[in-house]
Amino acid sequence: MNAPEARIRQEDLQQRLQATLHAQREDFLREGEVSAATRQDRIDRGIAALVRHQERFVEALDSDFSCRPREVTLLTDVAAAITPLRHARKHLDRWMRPERRPTMFPLNLLGGRSRIEYQPLGVVGVISPWNFPVYLTFGPLAGVLAAGNRAMIKPSEYTPATAEVMAELVAEAWDETEVAIFSGGPEVGRAFSGLPFDHLLFTGATSVGRHIMAAAAQNLVPVTLELGGKSPVIISRSADIEQSLERIMLGKTLNAGQICLAPDYLMVPEEKLDEVIAAATRSVNAMYPRLLDNPEYSSIINQRHFERLQGYLQEAAERGVTTIPINPAGEDFAQQQGTWKIPPTLIPHPPEDLQLMQDELFGPLLPIRTYRDFEETLRYVNAHARPLAAYYFGEDRNEEAAVLRRTTSGGVCINDVIMHIMQEELPFGGVGASGMGVYHGEAGFRTFSHAKSIYRQVKLNVGKLGGMLPPYGDKTEKTIRMQIGK
Length: 486
Hints:
- The protein folds into two domains: 3-227 and 438-450, Aldehyde Dehydrogenase, Chain A, domain 1, CATH 3.40.605; 232-424, Aldehyde Dehydrogenase, Chain A, domain 2.
- The chain is 45% helix and 15% strand.
- It contains 17 helices and 16 strands.
């Protein structure tokens, strides 16, 4: 494609995006107040379409990943998307109720009343990632639609088969003035992120999040950024090692570790390192007696990410760092055809300057650091960017309290990993480099609503009564003394 053709295509894309945004906003304004029944109907249509298309998503994600287990897709994408939609439908009547707020003295005594009403923002943009494309597209719609908004969606180009099914689902379930979807590569993403939405939700890498925020800032669009980071796992001397590693390795091998909340590195007591490695190995062996030809073990999404992960391992090998691949059947991963699988690999004692200790791994690699004194773990976590999650395994209440109160992360699990994302009444989001803003459940409804403050004044002229009107005099001074104090 030559330069003039590319420019025409980009202009056409911009026009289509702008036209859809304009149509959604105009229809939103024509609609006026969005009733609970209308919101519930829109949610119901989404749930029904997800149920109808569930097996198509299984096939599409297996194709996009080259190997994605049916059970993983149904549990972590389809069911995970339906759950927040049903939760929002059930509770939105309560969420929509105006909230009475106390009125300050003396206006409360004179009859003044204060309240908050939650009003839809308008049109919300949703940019979703490739690792859980169904869940991270339709899950956020629970809050968006419950709040009475319209939505425009940009799915990842890394999962084209899934995006195609999503496009059919969206067209089937909603009018384009309610929900619209735009598939495509980076050029679509750039144009999409520059639209003057009323709110923009982005889920993806921190590096891309910076560009999204910069583009949104041109139109002063408020953003919710769900990013990632290196989520630490602190294993206490009081922890049940076998049980802990069973849960940790499930979180690390699910979707081949391609999860924003996956454990990124372990911190274990130095005398328990061998025990931890043995327990991790037993856990993987029990879940996956074989890996390469096992349809229950996911592939890396594509060659680019496969080579990125292999690059981390190659650097470690060149530096003489020990790596421990857990390969129960002793399969030759160099001979795989059509997949990009990597065995779960432990990296004990990694030097701090290795690239795998700098980047979010997003794969089945697991560095293991050791410590002598528990304080070392807190210092290490606090010396790095704030992660999306932190995990503590153990029964020591003082240590648990120290992790909760002296470290900062988007969320925390005690004696498990990842599971907090399944709790709809817990706000989900990052902090610092791992993101900003929250959604899920009522928190999502609030994020995608405008909390409008409303004060109703009494018939009495309060300003005159309080000496607030010029010319100022004794009443004014009395009011000032009452406010400031003697």
